[in-house]
Amino acid sequence: MNFENPDISILKNKKLYIFDMDGTIYLGNQVFPYAIRFIKNLRKNGKRVLFFTNNASHSPEFYLKKLTRLGFEPTMDEIMTSGDVTAEFLLRHRADKSVYLVGTDDLVNNFRERGINLIDGKSESADIVITSFDTSLTYEKLDNACRLVRNGAEYLSTHPDFNCPTETGFIPDSGAIAAFVTASTGKIPTYFGKPYRETVEMICEATGCTKSEMCIFGDRLYTDIAIGRRHGVTAVLVLSGETQPADVVSAEPVDRPDFTFDSLDDVD
């Protein structure tokens, strides 16, 4: 299906190009070669690049190594995750609060290195419970999280994605884990990552760019595109990941992307 896009010069005049990762520039370990070419051309033309993923199951160091291995030639200051946004919120607004974190070892270590006060699941209470995309998830972790939320802990989640795209299909993501906790406790978490305001604010602060100077490329309407449409950042949808053409057609006008392409290979 062909979509009618505005004048492409809108994109060419941006200073900062933000890229989702899974489904946009690669799937799992399957790199999209055209994405490498596209990003290299941006740098050649003096543009800035930021890789932002809601997938907080890995550290920025992990993504640096992965993107380097796949051929994207990133620097550490070009990488940000929803875990970074969540940790920064804790440091600024919940300093020294006790936190029970349901996440991978990478995320746990990332939070510890930042000085966040993490506690184990044996504690009777916690100030805050955070759930994320946890590929090491156990029933014990879920039980601990639910118990602590019922006992009064504030409930946060790094990001709302229900599924994570892989080479072999979708696997349950952070939003699906949060749905379990919500179903058991009745508590809905405060989410971070895309599409939330805190993420845009952190990107502005880290890069020095204004929202009007940015554009974001992604494959999901409810995260990548929503963060742009809600917060004044030009939003570009690529159909190389989760979203299908029919999803764009059925979306409300306010939720549709500014541009839609089959992939980054079609962005002139």
Strand-helix topology:
Elements: H1 9-12, E1 16-19, E2 26-27, E3 30-31, H2 33-44, E4 48-53, H3 60-70, E5 79-81, H4 82-93, E6 98-102, H5 105-113, E7 117-118, E8 128-131, H6 139-150, E9 154-157, E10 163-166, E11 169-172, H7 174-185, E12 190-191, H8 197-207, E13 214-218, H9 221-231, E14 234-238, H10 245-250, E15 259-261
Parallel strand pairs: 1-4, 1-13, 4-5, 6-7, 6-8, 8-9, 9-12, 13-14, 14-15
Antiparallel strand pairs: 2-3, 10-11
Helix pairs in contact: 6-7
| Annotated CATH topology of the largest domain | Rossmann fold
Weakly predicted, low-confidence segments = none
| Overall residue-averaged pLDDT value | 94
Termini gap: 18 Å
Number of strands: 15
Alpha plus pi helix count: 10
Total tally of structural domains: 2
Walk across the major sheet and give the strand order: 5-4-1-13-14-15
CATH top level label of the largest domain: Alpha Beta
Q: Structural class per helix/strand content? A: alpha/beta
Biggest sheet: strands, sense, closure?
6 strands, parallel
User: Helical amount among residues, as a percent range?
Assistant: 25-40%
CATH architecture of the largest domain: 3-Layer(aba) Sandwich
Shape: globular
**What would you give as the CATH superfamily of the largest domain?**
HAD superfamily/HAD-like
- Percent strand equals 15-25%
Helix and strand pattern: HEEEHEHEHEHEEHEEEHEHEHEHE
Whole-angstrom Rg: 18 Å
